[in-house]
Amino acid sequence: MSKVCVVSCQFPPDVGGLGASVYRITRALSDQFDIDIIATTSSKNPNCLKTVGAASVHYVSEGRNYLETINNLSIAVARLDIDRRYDLFHGFYLPVAKAIIPVARGRPIIGSVRGNDVVQWLAEQQKRAVVKEVVRRCDAITTVATDLGEFLDSVTKVRNKLRLIFNAARPKNLSWIAHDDQIGVVGSVANFRRKKGTLDLIRAFSLVPKEWRRQLLLVGGFDEDPEEGKKATLLSNELGIADQVHVTGQMNSNSAVERAMLRMRVFAMASHHDGHSNAVMEAASLGLPMVATNVGAIRELVVDEKHALVVEPRNSLALSRAIARMLADIDLAKSLGREFQRLAMEYGEDYEKEEWTKLYGEFI
């Protein structure tokens, strides 16, 4: 069985879409490849080892800065490689692939673009140099949305290395069913930060007629962007809807998140830019009626008026009108939810496993 080393800056129990994707993909592939996962953790006393399926997870401490974190990861990769002699390396988040370069010595490297690593890292000259170095050394670059790949290619000329693999939707035992307790409840799920457009969503909710709105349920927290959390609180107070905006804080249980999502009449995604939100695919698996901004993979997978109502980003008025329309028309909500769920079935875990198996197979 071929040996693969996957390096990431996030993995459960740390909460986030990146870690959820690494977990889902490595678990699916662990019956075909001998996988080690090396991941940073914010814990001061990281567990040395755990298993996910047949894959082994090795945690290392985050550094005080990016270079220290990369050094910690690189040391961990080198130590394991002495005994394991990996056939393939995979940097899951483009900047962390830098930790692999000194160790690989000619062996193939796959780098994965998730969203922030393109938009934020290419905006700063020093960080852009890191991305360019990683791209030059990687044999393939995966992305979850075509526009992310095009943006990366505009700076690094990487088109011949790009591979598009969408995030999968996990199958669910439950499905969204309309009931009275959901009336007026609009919700979203995220690690809320500026790019998620949370302030736009709060403004949009405030513009929905009072008789139609009851609660804005934000499932997650602002741990990654406390300043945005402060702005959200101030805006909610200014708009007079603070009593209707509820932020749950981070939830470590998938079942708790699913239960919260099933309380929503409308799932709303207001991102300014994004790759392919795992939360969107979770909503699709449950069959939630969705209003979303036309960014990232939404632009490629979701058809307006068929799977969801889609509006342009940074437009609170358009977002508000779409939410109000969905709240007022239960038949529309049910129809869109059903089609959204069918889309999730098309891009399920079998699709994702097949795509990643083919990609790994190109280099092993």
Number of helices: 14
In this structure, how is the largest beta sheet organized?
Answer: 8 strands, mixed
Low-confidence blocks of residues: none
Characterize the overall form.
globular
| Total beta strand runs | 14
pLDDT averaged residue by residue: 91
**N-C termini distance:** 10 Å
Give the helices and strands as they follow along the chain: EHEEEHEHEHHEHEEHEHEHEHEHEHHH
Helix content: 40-55%
Strand order of the largest sheet: 3-4-2-1-5-6-7-8
Gyration radius, to the nearest Å? 21 Å
Strand content: 15-25%
* SSE-based structural type: alpha/beta
Give me the secondary-structure topology.
Elements: E1 3-8, H1 17-29, E2 34-41, E3 50-52, E4 55-61, H2 66-84, E5 88-92, H3 101-104, E6 109-112, H4 116-119, H5 125-137, E7 140-143, H6 146-156, E8 162-164, E9 185-191, H7 198-207, E10 215-221, H8 226-238, E11 245-247, H9 254-261, E12 266-269, H10 278-286, E13 290-293, H11 298-301, E14 309-311, H12 316-328, H13 330-346, H14 349-363
Parallel strand pairs: 1-2, 1-5, 2-4, 5-6, 6-7, 7-8, 9-10, 9-12, 10-11, 12-13, 13-14
Antiparallel strand pairs: 3-4
